[in-house]
Amino acid sequence: GESVGLHLPTLSVQEGDNSIINCAYSNSASDYFIWYKQESGKGPQFIIDIRSNMDKRQGQRVTVLLNKTVKHLSLQIAATQPGDSAVYFCAENLNDYKLSFGAGTTVTVRA
Amino acid sequence: SQTIHQWPATLVQPVGSPLSLECTVEGTSNPNLYWYRQAAGRGLQLLFYSVGIGQISSEVPQNLSASRPQDRQFILSSKKLLLSDSGFYLCAWQGRELGELFFGEGSRLTVL
Question: What is the band of A5 on the pLDDT scale with cuts at 50, 70, 90?
Answer without folding.
Answer: very low
